[in-house]
Automatic annotation (TrEMBL):
This is Peptidase S24/S26A/S26B/S26C domain-containing protein. Residues 9-71 form the Peptidase S24/S26A/S26B/S26C domain.
Amino acid sequence: MPTLLRPGLARVHGRSMEPTLREGDLLLVLHGARPRVGGLAVVRLPGGVVAVKRVVHREPGGWWVERDNPREGVDSWRVGAVPDADVVARVLARVRRAPPARGA
């Protein structure tokens, strides 16, 4: 049976995808969609943490994902490729940009 594609919304928490995304940004996502190299995906990392990461390339059994901010967060350099089953959704667009943090 084919995977059911379902649109949804996701909110960004953390700084690992700055400057592309920032804390509080609202994203339009497509659950069940295959990631695209160069695009963004919502993935489940070891320990159950759900995060947005950039899809770099396909590996046997999974996807190599990276953060845009080298000083924050976790990516495939630390945890290896993300298994297909742990790709939650493909990011389609940022719906709303969060306001800049105070003092920024």
